[in-house]
Amino acid sequence: MNTPAFHKTLPSAEDIALARESGRVLSTVLKTRAETQQIDFHDEQGMTRTVALPTSALRLLLEVLTEIGQGNVVSIIPIHAELTTQEAADVLNVSRPFLVQLLEKGEMPFHKIGTHRRVRYQDVIDYKNRIDAERRKALDDLAAQAQELGMGY
Length: 153
Fold this sequence. Notes:
By secondary structure, the protein is α+β, with helices and mostly antiparallel strands. It has two domains: 57 residues, no CATH class; 67 residues, Multidrug-efflux Transporter Regulator, Chain: A, Domain 2. It contains five helices and five strands. A three-stranded antiparallel beta sheet has the order 3-5-4. A two-stranded antiparallel sheet has the order 1-2. α3 packs across α4. It is extended. The termini are far apart.
């Protein structure tokens, strides 16, 4: 199985403007309850090709266009994808050695293919959500404690 590539090139100003306009048009099309939609594509020779797409795929496309329209880089990764340690570290925005330490401590499951560790994308996201929730709780506890002590926060 191919592992996903993480492209970090920011969209150009033209891409941002086009994504915003395309997203606006697509959002009007998606006000339907139909399970599929048809889109006409026009090539350089003037030929039109009609493609039927699941409405769910178009909703995902709208999310992608919205992010690009805000100047963000977008990667689409299947939930069941297996990531290398570097790819998983990139998702978490940590160094690869730090991620390897997390794996070895049992903070998230992994398996080896030969000598190489692989981590399921969903396990990386579950870890990220768990850590984010713990951080939010710690910040809430600190804010409550500061208020109790009258520290002006």
